Amino acid sequence: xxxxxxxxxxxxxxxxxxxxxxxxxxxxxxxxxxxxxxxxxxxxxxxxxxxxxxxxxxxxxxxxxxxxxxxxxxxxxxxxxxxxxxxxxxxxxxxxxxxxxxxxxxxxxxxxxxxxxxxxxxxxxxxxxxxxxxxxxxxxxxxxxxxxxxxxxxxxxxxxxxxxxxxxxxxxxxxxxxxxxxxxxxxxxxxxxxxxxxxxxxxxxxxxxxxxxxxxxxxxxxxxxxxxxxxxxxxxxxxxxxxxxxxxxxxxxxxxxxxxxxxxxxxxxxxxxxxxxxxxxxxxxxxxxxxxxxx
Length: 295
Prior knowledge:
With 295 residues, the protein is an all-alpha fold. The protein has a single domain (2-293), classed as Farnesyl Diphosphate Synthase (Orthogonal Bundle). 74% of the residues lie in helices and 1% in strands. The protein is built from 16 helices and two strands. A two-stranded antiparallel ribbon has the order 1-2. The longest helix is centred in the last third of the chain and has 28 residues, at 202-229.
């Protein structure tokens, strides 16, 4: 399929950018740099960077590798902070997950202190990368967007509410807040960076931000469902982690069937938001890929 080839070429550009950026394993302090490489180059889907590329090229009006290489710092920064969030999420004091992407989690492969520092190092590296734009205005705008997405009002805030909500009986609105912030915030940042770099109309930015939010919520609901009825091959880790950690999930609060219907509605709404935009094939494929994960 042409769309799969598009994703592959964009992912290849990102992988090379990450490979060139990360310090070699031989550089002192070796253990930290080994952990950074191990977790970043660990076979991720690269959803956030590819969403950024897809949005940017849709707004650009054509597919152009040279143009996206100019905005590569944004894509790299998104992947670095996402990886950092996974490292911290897996820690014994958080979700206590021993596997990630079918391999040992960072704190298992190395140790807990190294895992904490690795996450910290990747976040700071992300901000350093964003200073690499030729335009200082582009750098500042992307740093603002990423900072908001990571903040106590964004991903970190969602993680905080997730932690204090564990073992408690929470309502669907609190769970929705957790998902919007933990998963949705970085997806929103992905499209918002593309919008700011293309200097598009504010209404388009709002529409695409809501599109990304719907994707994030739908993705997380499907993940909740798969954690209950999925398999190791699908998840890349043992299912049942949410139940083990006594976390609220959509299936727990709404039931499997209603959770599935909620995800389907979010995906339909996302489709309607972008269906009339030109060059939207890559974004439509994001909707299809989440739909295909529904059991």
